[in-house]
Amino acid sequence: MEHYVYLMECADGTLYCGYTTDPKRREQQHNAGCGAKYTAARRPVRLVYTEVYPTKQEAMHREWEIKKCSRTEKLKMIKKWQNTCEI
């Protein structure tokens, strides 16, 4: 099983970082209001970044690291990722 760290862009322009095993399903859950409280009030959200890891522990550690990053750093990560793959 693959484990993902993701960033969602909310309707108000803020970014939300989370963990999942299925990023597209998680995006749908957030947009249905069944995700985090933070995103429920900021719908719709759009998946803008993912990283994949072989274990949940590695993915959750990376999620913690990303959450400590500044908005500018996160935007740089998103831009680089979007230039190298399709969403």
Characterization of the model:
- The protein is 46% helix and 26% strand.
- With 87 residues, the chain is α+β, with helices and mostly antiparallel strands.
- Strands 2-1-3 form a 3-stranded antiparallel beta sheet, sandwiched between helices.
Helix and strand arrangement:
Blueprint: E1 3-10, E2 15-20, H1 23-31, H2 37-40, E3 45-53, H3 56-68, H4 71-84
Antiparallel strand pairs: 1-2, 1-3
Provide a concise account of the structure shown.
Helices cover 46% and strands 26% of the residues. By secondary structure, it is an alpha+beta fold. It has a 3-stranded antiparallel β-sheet with strand order 2-1-3, sandwiched between helices.
The amount of beta strand, in percent, is 25-35%
Strand-and-helix sequence, N→C? Answer: EEHHEHH
Q: Mind describing the biggest β-sheet?
A: 3 strands, antiparallel
What oligomeric state do these chains adopt? Answer: single chain
Overall 3D geometry?
globular
Given as residue ranges, the uncertain stretches (5+ residues, pLDDT < 50) are none
What's the alpha carbon Rg, rounded to whole Å? Answer: 12 Å
* Helix share, percent: 40-55%
Mean pLDDT: 95
Describe the strand arrangement of the main beta sheet, using strand numbers. 2-1-3
Q: Roughly how many Å apart are the termini? A: 20 Å
Extended strand count: 3
**Secondary-structure class:** alpha+beta
Count of individual helical segments:
4
Pick out its properties.
87 residues, alpha+beta, 3-stranded antiparallel sheet, 3 strands, 46% helix, globular
